[in-house]
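# step 3/5: fold
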Amino acid sequence: KVDTQLSLVTQKLLSTMGAVLSAVQTLLAQGMDRLSGHLRGSSSGTQLRKEVYSFGEMPWDPELMQTCYREAERSQGRLRQLVVPFGFFGTRSLMFGAQDLAQ
């Protein structure tokens, strides 16, 4: 039974991880846009180093992480569909792993 459903399971897992990574990509793009805007406003080498350093640090921002949390919740719902046919009970640990990756 698993063999016939393997492509569906694989597709579901890949789409879930892809959605989480897409949320991370969006956050990084927003950060790069902010960095670019700051850099256009300043030609100082010192300011450039400061902005690049602060982007690399990316302090914890709960508001920014809400995007990742919402996607993780949606993903957990999609993965729950695998419990009935396959007894796949690892959705919580998989989503925590995806959240760790996103953070």
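# step 4/5: annotate
The radius of gyration is 19 Å.
# step 5/5: archive (pending)
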